[in-house]
Amino acid sequence: MPTLGKGQFDLLSEINPRGTVVCFYRGLHCPLCATYLKEFQALVGEFAERGVGTIAISSDGEERAQQMAEKIAADDLRLGYNLSLSVAHDWGLYISTSRGKTSTGVEEPKLFIEPGLFMISPDKTLYYASVQTMPFVRPHFSDLIGALDFVIKNNYPARGEYTGPV
């Protein structure tokens, strides 16, 4: 997947000692996403100190992704764009239809993704997931930093790992 000025993003090629945080956001039209990504941008260094890579991804095209980067003053945060809706569906993300212009006067795309936050372990297995149908009440990145500190200190395993019969 292309990113703004930070090369291609390929999760399977990521090499981070403690994994990668993948944040899917709705797009330029979403004022809540801009606020959310500002928080993420401010904590990229904190994640890096813990050995965790970061990326925020939307189904927006390059031009809209660039506008979002400017809006949030993205310096360190990788912004991926052109996420296909079929790949979004594979991640378990919800897809919404346009309702026209948002409160900020930006037109919603015909179809776009709803938020999702994932922590992928270095071995590329899922460690944490939060998928939403709405743009409201998202997990805070500062809470994820605190959880990472606990996980690192206590060698806490991923949960929800059971796949046998029930």
What does this structure look like?
It is a single chain. With about 170 residues, the chain is an alpha/beta fold. It has a single domain, classed as Glutaredoxin (3-Layer(aba) Sandwich), CATH 3.40.30.10. The model has no long low-confidence stretch (mean pLDDT about 95). The protein is built from four helices and seven strands. The relative contact order is 0.20. It has a five-stranded mixed beta sheet. A two-stranded antiparallel sheet has the order 4-5.
Percent of residues in helices: 25-40%
The main pleated sheet reads as:
5 strands, mixed
The CATH architecture can be named as 3-Layer(aba) Sandwich
Radius of gyration: 16 Å
Shape: globular
Main β-sheet, spatial strand arrangement: 3-2-1-6-7
Mind telling me the CATH class? Alpha Beta
Question: Structural class from helices and strands?
Answer: alpha/beta
CATH superfamily: Glutaredoxin
Please count the beta strands (DSSP E, at least 2 residues each): 7
Q: Count the helices. How many? A: 4
N→C terminal distance? 37 Å
Number of domains as seen in the coordinates = 1
CATH fold category name? Glutaredoxin
| Secondary-structure element string | EHEHEHEEEEH
Keyword list:
166 residues; alpha/beta; Glutaredoxin; 5-stranded mixed sheet; two-stranded antiparallel sheet; 4 helices; 7 strands; 30% helix
Summarize the topology.
Blueprint (H helix, E strand, L loop, with lengths): L19 E5 L6 H19 L3 E5 L4 H11 L6 E2 L4 H6 L4 E3 L13 E3 L2 E5 L5 E6 L9 H14 L12
Parallel strand pairs: 1-2, 2-3
Antiparallel strand pairs: 1-6, 4-5, 6-7
